[in-house]
Amino acid sequence: MTLKVAPIRSTNVTVPEGPHGMIEATYDIPAEHNGAVALVAHCFTCNKNSPGVSRVSKTLARHGYASLRLTFSDLTLSHNVDDLHHVATWLSEKYTAPALLVGHSLGGAAALRAGSRIPSVKAVATIGAPFDPRHAAITLPDLIEQLAEASAGTYLDVPLSGRSIRITKEMLEDLARSVPARDIEALGRKKVNLMVAHSPFDQTVPFRDALKIIDAALQPASLIAVPEVDHLLTRRGSGQRVGELIAAWAQPYVT
C-alpha cells in the first residue's frame, strides 16, 4: 500500500486540569488530514520530545494522521493510563477523539490498559512493549529492596539511559498490581484492533513478551517483527520505520 505523504506542523499544547496536574503535549498536524487522530505514549525513560516517540508521531502526521504525543505527568503506570484517558477526552472536546493509540515500551503497557477505556479507540499499536510491566523493575533488585520497607513518598533517583529517573515506592506497588492478561483481554472484548511491533534482537524487552501479548489477545492481532530497529528507537530510521508500519496497518480501521 502506498500512503500519501503530507507536510506537517508541530504545535506545543498544554492539556489543563489533568488528574495528576497539567499535561504537556505536542500536536503534529498534517496539511492533509485523513480524518484520524492518534495519541502517542512515550517509553519509561522518555518524554514527548524524545527521538523515538517524536519520529513515530511525525511519521504518522506525514501520512495524514493528526498525532498528539504527550509527556506523562507521573511515572506510575496507573497515572499514565489516567493521563491518556484525560487527554483523549480533551481531544474529543477540542478537536477530534483519538481512534489510534500508540505506546512505546512501558507506554505500550499503558496503551494496552487504556485502549479499552477510551470509547473512541479502534486500534492500539505497541512498540517494544513488555507483556508484564512488573518486569520493568526486576533488573533493579537493590532498588526494590531499599523501597520495599520504606514509607509512602519515599523515592530514589536512579540513572537509566543517560537520565536520572525518580523511582517511587508507589510506582513499584502500582506495577505489582498489574494484571496484563486482563488488560489485553479487555481490548479483545471491545474488538479493538491490536498490532505488536517488536525487534527479535531487543535487549531491553525480550521478543517473547510480544508473543505473550499476541497469545493473550482474544481478537486476531498482528505481530510485526522489526529486527532493524533498537529498543529506544534512536538508531537512524527506526522511528520512521515503525511509524510507517503503524500508519499503513491502522488506516483501514481508523479512517
From TrEMBL:
SUPFAM superfamilies: alpha/beta-Hydrolases (SSF53474)
Gene3D superfamilies: alpha/beta hydrolase
Domain AB hydrolase-1: 63-233
Keyword Transmembrane recorded: no
Molecular function (Gene Ontology), one example: hydrolase activity
Keywords assigned by UniProt, alphabetized: Hydrolase
Pfam annotation, one family: Abhydrolase_6
Alphabetized InterPro entries for the sequence: AB_hydrolase_1 (IPR000073), AB_hydrolase_fold (IPR029058)
Protein name: Alpha/beta hydrolase
Organism: Corynebacterium anserum
